[in-house]
Amino acid sequence: MANVHVTPQLIAKMIAVYVGEDVGKAFFTNVSNRLLPEYQGKTNKPGATVRFRKPFRQVASNSLAWNPQPLTDQIGTCTVNNIASVQNQWDIVEQTLEVEEVMEYYVRPAGNALRGEIATQLANFCVQNAQGAVGSPGTAATGPLTYLQAGDVLVEQGMPEQKPNLVMNRRMSTAFVDGTKTLFNPAGTIGGQFDRGRIAGDTLGYNIFQDQATPVVTNGVFAGTPLVNGGSQAGTNGSNGTQSLITDGWSSTSLNKYTKFVIGSASSATVGGVESVHPVLKTSSGRQQVCSVVNDISDTSGDMTVVISPALTLTGAMQNVNSIPVDNAIITVLGTTGATQTMGIVMAKDSFGFLSVPLAELYDGVKCITATDPKSGFSVMQSRWGDGQNMQNNMRYDCLFAPYAQFPELSVVTYA
User: Lowest mean pLDDT: which of 28-42, 159-173, 177-191, 332-346?
Assistant: First the structure.
């Protein structure tokens, strides 16, 4: 086959498609990318604010009384300031390589590096903002129950009829394969797992992806008997909001963004307390609402005001709990203090979003090309400038992106 002249435009396009469709399946293609029309295709600088639309929610009544609800657009904003970048050099000899060689020596390595950086940031964002949790922190599930329970939580939170996505790492997959090896049915699935050495990609009602970007993190360090300090601490905007929760009873505590907890009653950590509700039916799930720590916080006095997500909202279209915490309600942190734990995630399609927007081009002799994968929306900008003395083109590939929470209640951390 004769050599094909590989152009910079072709390389940029190959990287965009490779990252967006091939190596990015676990995260890029499993989240929403619904930019408002005025932002689609528009170039942006780091720090730009873009907007996205979310479906409107209404509350049904049980009478004939006239009680109209305005159809107000649910618009979210997102600051796009995450960067992933790789740089290389391309000389005139390498421009004679065939397409297959360019794919092997340049596109795949560059794409894997970009994807690794982006997927890690996106995975961390998803597990930090997930509003459900199942499993035992520090212990990988060896059977279907934990993962099926994650599906229970999604249905209780109003997940539409769809097959959600389960993302786990190799260690979680291995624990599942080993734990189910003695099952007889389904024989084909169990046998296939044994042959491949990994969990089947289409089982338990999930699209399953194995991805090492799922974070292995250290839980917050905590001690004492944490309690809610004062009743009537209600928030607004439900699963889309945050609130400050006044607490006391801690000692030598340092919570981080991976720390999650539930709130019981004043007399029991496990019975009653603050329970999640179905977003449409408004009926209690019988399951305590998982709260995520939004900002890292440390304190030795015992009193802490912790910013949490979601906002505990008791009324209106955004209601997400059946009660607000009472004074001295018992707080139970999930996991062991300071323990290392893996966090997989089960998520519906619209739980999170991934915005990849074209970068604003440079000037003064730098040639820029932006390529976008049409399926995933992933964009990469190639910048190149010449080094005539060494007969080389200097090239860099930069991505501007940001994750955002759309319906974070439709996501569940699976501890391992």
Answer: 28-42
One DSSP character per residue, 86-131 reads EEEEEETTGGGS-HHHHIIIIIHHHHHHHHHHHHHHHHHHHHHH--
Angle CA 257–307–77, to nearest 5: 85
Q: Which residues pair with 308 in a beta bridge?
A: 243, 293
pTM: 0.88
Residues 313, 320 contacting (CB under 8 angstroms): yes
- Nearest-10 Cα torsion for 172, 173, 174, 175: 50
326's tokens: 């009472």
Return the CA Rg of the chain: 24
- Tens of pLDDT, residues 23-37: 556 766 566 666 555
84-103 pLDDT, tens digit per residue, is 999 887 766 666 667 777 78
Whole-number Cα distances in Å, 364 to 228, 359, 360, 367, 384: 58, 16, 14, 9, 11
